[in-house]
Amino acid sequence: MLSPLPAITAFDPDATDGPTVARHLDFADYAAEVPTHVHRKGQMILALHGAVTCTAADQLWIVPPNCGIWIPGGTVHSARATPNARLSYLFVEPGAARLPDHCCALSVTPMIGAMIDRLTMEGASYRPDSHAARLARVLLDELAAMPHQRFNLPVSANPKISAIADALTSKPSDRATQAEWAKRVAMSERSLSRLLVRETGLTFGHWRQQMHLVIALRELAGGASVQAVAAELGYGSVNAFITMFQKALGTTPARFFSSRREKQA
To answer: CA-CA to 219 of 20 to 30 Å: which in 17, 84, 160, 229?
Structure first.
């Protein structure tokens, strides 16, 4: 049996110089891993169902439902989708919109989602005076006004931090202390503490909690139960996990995803 192809083989967004081009992707048809790549156009990634994590600009990003990750053109990035992920991609020509020059997570309204869905029905080279072109201009204006969300984890090219991030991503239940991690990467605890704050802006405890939040959002959006996610992250009880989630996002996991499903309806 042949291995599924990576999603980047589906189409080339830079094959046209039009202001925007939109596509839907169902990851039942593609490999979960999207390898490191880069393109001229900026890219907005939205999750219609399931979730995807992206690595770009020394950040690990989660794309839960009703949010999007904006990746400016020329930014090297990679991604991993949950098996049930259905995504919308919106590619934007440089200079076509007042979108940030840095990666960020944006709220996405049902209207924006509907406009992107409509653009997926268009070819890559619609006329500048067409209905699709007018729709694209309104869409880009709306996107530029959307509030930012915190669904990212600062990482680093520093090999010490990269080693810890890779280990914790592979085994998020590891509850080793900062002192224990310092020994593992052959540093003093004080040096590791300073390095983390300098490279990520967060203390070790806050950095690991944010990593747990990113992983939790991905797994919950992928269909995992709260109990399974709490166990995967090494929490002693489901209540302890829910408390962490509520402190970070102001609501429980059940209410978080329920409110997003209501927005999609």
So the answer is: 160
CATH number of 7-149: 2.60.120.280
Rounded mean pLDDT, 59-70: 81
Claim: this prediction has a pTM higher than 0.70: yes
Instruction: Report, as an integer, the average pLDDT of 205-227.
Output: 89
Q: Which pair of structure tokens corresponds to residue 34?
A: 């999207």
| Domain 156-264 CATH (choose: 2.30.29.30, 3.40.50.300, 1.10.10.60, 2.40.10.340) | 1.10.10.60
Torsion of CA 223, 228, 233, 235, to 10 degrees: 140
Average pLDDT, the chain: 88
Q: Average of pLDDT values for 3-27?
A: 87
- 47 confidence band (pLDDT: 50, 70, 90): confident
